[in-house]
Design goal:
Layout (H helix, E strand, L loop, with lengths): L3 E3 L2 H9 L26 E3 L6 H5 L12 H13 L3 E8 L5 E7 L2 E8 L6 H7 L10 H17 L6 E9 L3 E9 L5 E8 L6 H7 L19 H17 L6 E10 L4 E9 L5 E9 L23 H17 L5 E10 L4 E10 L4 E8 L6 H5 L12 H13 L3 E10 L5 E10 L3 E10 L3 E13 L4 E10 L2 E10 L7 E12 L8 E16 L2 E15 L26 H6 L20 H9 L2 E13 L10 E15 L3 E13 L5 E13 L29 E2 L13 E12 L9 E13 L39 E2 L5 E12 L2 E12 L9 E8 L1
Parallel strand pairs: 2-4, 5-7, 8-10, 11-13, 14-16
Antiparallel strand pairs: 1-3, 3-4, 6-7, 9-10, 12-13, 15-16, 17-18, 17-34, 18-19, 19-20, 20-21, 21-22, 22-23, 23-24, 24-25, 25-26, 26-27, 27-29, 28-31, 29-30, 30-32, 32-33, 33-34
Amino acid sequence: MKFGLRLRGGLLATLIMFGAPVLTPVGAAFVSSSALAQTVQSISVEGNRRVEVETIRSYFKAGPGGRLDQGAIDDGLKALIETGLFQDVRINRGAGGQIVVSVVENPVIGRIAFEGNKKIKDEQLTAEVQSKARGTFSRAMVQSDTLRIAEIYRRSGRYDVRVTPEIIEQPNNRVDLIFTVEEGSKTGVKSIEFVGNSAFSSYRLRDVIKTHESNLLSFLASSDIYDPDRVEADRDLIRRFYLKNGFADVQVVAALTEYDPEKKGFNVTFKIEEGSQYRVGAIDFRSSIPNFDPTSMRNYSRINVGSLYNVESVEKSVEEMQIEASRRGYAFAVVRPGGDRNFEAHTVSVVFNIDEGPRTYIERINLRGNTRTRDYVIRREFDVSEGDAYNRALVDRAERRLKNLDYFKSVKITTEPGSSSDRVILLVDMEEKSTGDFSVSGGYSTTDGALAEVSVSERNLLGRGLFAKASVTYGQYARGYSLSFVEPYLLDYRVALGLDFYQRQQLSNSYISYGTKTLGFSPRLGFALREDLSLQLRYSIYQQEITLPSYLANCNNVQTLPDGTPNPAFNPSPAFANSIGMSLASTNGLGCYSDGEASLPVRKELAGGKTLTSALGYTLTYNTLDNNKNPTDGLLVDFRQDFAGVGGDVSYLKSVIDAKYYAPLVSDVVGLVHLQSGMLNKIGSNDLRMLDHFQMGPNLVRGFAPNGIGPRDINPYDTQDALGGTKYWGASVELQMPFWFLPKEVGLKGAVYADAGGLYDYKGPTTWGVTGETTTPFNSGCTASTTNPATPGTCTGLIYDDSKVIRSSVGVGLIWQSPFGPLRFDYALPLSKGKYDRTQEFRFGGGTSF
């Protein structure tokens, strides 16, 4: 008679964990003492189908002399259970004390299927589950897979998901595994609250975090979906925001989340302890390095006495000081900031301590996760390499640069010990993401009408870090195409080379009587002088011509009827001309303005044919904005100059400066001061063209039409085109404020503003048609003017207004950061204007990509 004891892995593991002896029922023997004389080869196996006998025996390790002891048998039993190959494993005693291992093998999975899953594809779920087709079936693994599938859905915001595994038995000890998924609806964030905040409103803090509340437009985005990792990251964003604004003692104590079954969503509450706001009381520099002058680091400090204590500015100061010390030959210098708080005065005295750090070298830089991006594209973002001194500031800068490339979902640089105590290994872990874009953009504005664009771009072409883009634009009044290419590291230097080739066509509309065609090419070089200062050098060469309907460029205006006789409507008699106040100055009695003419500079440009412009230029940009898309604080200054005359048909010097300053005021109101100015100077003997002049409208003073400001042709029989000016200035003050009664996620805010500016000093052509030019088609039969401006009635002269009137306006605006792209609506009322200016009180513009 045989006695046996059936042991499960869980029970055995528990008994072993607590050191308890394995007890057997009364009258049963687990393995008798005579079994100790058995060898591995004397073990018999029962119940196995797929697993070989020798494979099962291999889990029993014999001791000295090839004998099995009790411990080896227990270990073999445990190892067999842990393989997951068997539903059940028993060890019994056979005749003569022989060991008999009885097994019941787990079935083989024939296929794995998913039912009910619509939001997540089968391929993604198959890659996540551990159970595999043609693998061994394990109930524990199936339970783990069930939880894993549910977690995937929760990460996508579906917390109501239910996953039910179903096992269908098949012949030959095979099973089919079916996961039935009830996905449920998305679980959003229904409310976001802040507790303990007094310095900043909840409305303002919602701008800081990435999680948003659910609203009617949430289906176009995913930021309202509850994600515990994102909520935890929001805690750090809030803390960093307070530290940036002088709250050195701030603590975001907790981010509490609670599921509301009635709303079927989460309520998120951030608990904040703000502390006091500090300013910088004093700044000191100290050094323990011999012959190192610490005061020389003062120029690299980003903080000033009296300013708000800003942790980010302190960190940037430390980084720049440490890098500068390395450049001076102190490769192991470490800058450590210290702060002494004055709780009564609410100030922090900052001390930058410069010490000699440990002499540690970089042994290797190991890159992991870049399956597409070439290694050299990543390594060139480092200012250090293998064998160099380890400098944490330079490593942090490299990590920031890699993140800014926008090639990776995540970048993390860590260290591990090297082959010796003074060596470290840098581990660069990355997760790549898609860098190609295909977009179809659409928009509409009161200036350009409807507009559509199709573009294809790649930010990491061939994994080499190159940028390429091709786009085609077709609109109501604007059409064209462009090709762009950027090499960010020219000849392995941190200099960006850009190449642009473009063709643009601007059609005549209600604001201009003529169209333009431009075909050009522009190479450029970009330099990052500092994080907040950049320089671009460029060369532009383009060919431009004016297009004009023939009836706006025929001086005589002689038109005939189908029978060949003159059309009286376009060949007026002197009596008719006198009745409308028109002077007929040409020798043949026909006037130049009988059906309206394009302005003289336009017709002269048309007669000149295609014009080639060759220009050198540069742009210097200073940018300290806190957010380039939706700024609330900081300064942005652009200074541009272009010199035309490096060959080509025209020559000039054009200078432009544009400055915007944003500042947070009270109750989430942001103030904006916008100043701009420009000047066009004649260079050499070539006259300035009208097309080279500045044209201004709502881009200078809102409330005016495009090309609605400045010098203008005022001949009543001309189209009265805007002529432009060589000088302009503009100033604007704007207050942007949220609508507190609307949810933050709607993205609406209002604006009130006042604008003022002026455009003047036209220096283009004013006369045309002198002796010897009477054969020109556009002035044939016309009388040359002897005055400048010319007298009315001569098709060769220009009558224009160039008064230096200050244009001004006040208005209100509606700004919408919509899911369809940024939209803006403005209504402005002109307060002062020139006699011939053209106004446009309402203006709208916006567009999107999809």
